[in-house]
Specification:
2 domains, Tetracycline Repressor, domain 2, single chain, disordered C terminus, Arc Repressor Mutant, subunit A
Length: 197
């Protein structure tokens, strides 16, 4: 069953913008990939800026759902002791899966803000909301206390650093994961009760 035209445009944009960048991807290429006419395209997206914002919203919905599912599955595979002493390890497992994928091109939000954030200021807000939801998902791995939000934010920053390094490709991926593991272990160690761990 064919997707509606708007969905075809969005999926084409998501693939092309993520793989090639926003500036390098012209509207004509999105139109051709989506199999729609220019009239149809502009009926749904009056400008490329509108398409970029819609692309980031869709990317957030699909990626954060995948991220949360991955965290939940990894946490479910941990023993009770591991959940207590290594609560942030699901972040590493999800990162390992993501970085190893053939389509990995880094963080779509950071990439887009770096590329065109000055020309479309509203996308910075979209990226910030995305990062906050990533932090909230990570915080869900930790015992609910006053430090959880700060530790989750630090873990989010560690993940972002690993993403940037893994994006270099080749031999950079494994060191990025090892660095992320060290940082997550240090953060979890600071969160555990000394008598427990």
């Amino acid at each position: 069953m064919d997707l509606p035209a708007r969905d075809r445009i969005l999926w084409a944009a998501q693939d092309l913008f993520y793989r090639h960048g926003v500036r390098a991807t012209g509207i004509d290429r999105v139109i051709a990939e989506a199999g729609v006419t220019k009239v149809t395209f502009y009926r749904h997206f009056p400008s490329k800026d509108d398409l970029v914002r819609a692309f980031l919203h869709q990317r957030h919905e699909t990626w954060i759902a995948w991220f949360k599912d991955g965290l939940a599955a990894s946490r479910a595979s941990q023993s009770a002791a591991e959940r207590e002493t290594q609560p942030l390890m699901p972040v590493l497992q999800v990162a390992r899966e993501w970085f190893g994928g053939s389509s990995f091109r880094g963080c779509a939000f950071a990439n887009t803000v770096a590329e065109i954030g000055e020309s479309i200021p509203s996308i910075t807000g979209i990226a910030l909301e995305h990062k906050q939801e990533v932090r909230d998902a990570i915080a869900g791995l930790l015992p609910a206390d006053a430090a959880a939000s700060d530790i989750a934010w630090a873990a989010t920053l560690a993940l972002d650093g690993a993403i940037v390094n893994a994006q270099l490709g080749g031999s950079s991926t494994e060191p990025a994961l090892l660095g992320l593991q060290s940082l997550l272990n240090a953060l979890a160690g600071g969160h555990c009760d000394p008598e427990d761990g």
